Amino acid sequence: MSFPFPPGFVITTDLFANREIINTHPDISAEFDRLLMENLQRMEAHTGLSFGDPQKPLLLSVRSGAPMSLPGAMDTFLNIGLTDEITLRLSQRPNYGWTAWDCYRRLIQSWGMAYGIARDEFDKIMVDFKTRYDVQQKTQFSPLQMREMVTEYKAVLKAHKVHLEQDPFRQLYTSIGHVLDSWNTERAKLYRAKLHIAQEWGTAVIIQKMVLGNISLDSGSGVLFTYADWHRESGICLNGDFTLCSQGEDVVAGLVHTLPISEAQRKQGHSSPEISLEKDFPAIYQRLLRYAGQLIHERNYPHQEIEFTFEGSAEDQLFILQTRNQVIHKSPDYKVLGSSQCKMQALGTGIGIGKGAINGILVITESDIARYQEADQALILVRPDTVPDDMPLLFECQGLLTSRGGVTSHAAVTATRLGLIGVVNCHQLVVNEKDSTCSICKTLLKAGDKISLDAPWDEYIKGIIHCKARIT
What we know:
Elements: E1 8-11, H1 13-17, H2 19-24, H3 26-47, E2 60-65, E3 76-80, H4 84-91, H5 97-114, H6 119-133, H7 143-159, H8 168-181, H9 186-195, E4 204-209, E5 220-225, E6 239-244, H10 249-252, E7 259-260, H11 263-268, H12 277-280, H13 282-298, E8 304-310, E9 318-325, E10 351-353, E11 357-363, H14 366-372, E12 379-383, H15 391-394, E13 399-402, H16 410-417, E14 421-424, E15 429-432, E16 437-440, E17 443-446, E18 450-454, E19 463-464, E20 470-471
């Protein structure tokens, strides 16, 4: 069985190791340009699309490929190849009106963030537009409203004097450079130091054809694990997160409320959504299950973490973006919360990560962490989502609670690797970062309050409080 990977190519870590020589030696630099163009032409021949052609544009993802995964620590660019002209032309094609502007919006944001613009500046525009047009989900915006949003995203770049290349080839070259540079960002260096990953390894650059998981409400993207600690039977148990009409960054960046992969996972939850990939997209689910079986049972791979996108509900519309060995932390004995000494009250629900229980002090911002770090108690980071930007804060805490994002988001995966206890995707949680407060249903909490989290995988999710708060 062949795997449906989008066509692409890899610039190996040799480029990183010899980057200075390549950039300064004219003949070697010309050789790199030639190889890059040759591989682009192979992709064009394979796909029937053409990079930079407004009529049939080839769009690319450009991301890192370090020898050991650094989830969320490095730059990623989606939809490279879009320009003002190409996006306008693409939006005029049938069924592409909304998708074209959504793709361009994402490219503008990732481009701006690579130049140091805070994610919050773009998120504020999205929130303002939802209020202005009275919509709950971005899929409810009209194509014209999405185009208007793109104009405001571009205004953010202009305010920061950041130029989005309108030459697709300059876009590609610049994005490759940013991915290589992001190996030495403070976030990436801190991640490697905490996880004891060698600094000198460097990164490869993976360039692939974009798959449009945001083309319709029958499309989507997700990340799944083949092993679940809560599953009672041996063998493969698909579980994880997916979202509809989205691109992969929504799931791994922890930006959205996610949906479960399997029916077993959906039923395991106490606040089960009605949708699961297995029930509502059975052809996609079954094909993923077959791929997992081939990797683990036929090729003897360990349990896997698989990123995927699907452009429709038929099995031939599924694409595997990447797969890696799943990191499994087995802990047969773990702490649980008891209620023998005080009355406990349920607060909210979410998805437990890092199996166990923790009592600690609620913190929301960097200044909160600095204020309570000497309190000789665990710190529980409370955030609206599990975006990679919060990684430095995560390293200073022992617990994590978020309103959005699933178990496969970069921050949740990192939290698990660090041995943190957490709860993600708690729909009832609303975080006010400005004054370091949050509310869960009708309960108001502030930085410094003592809360407790419980993440027992056998119950999956639950929640309680006693003059503190317990949420699972």
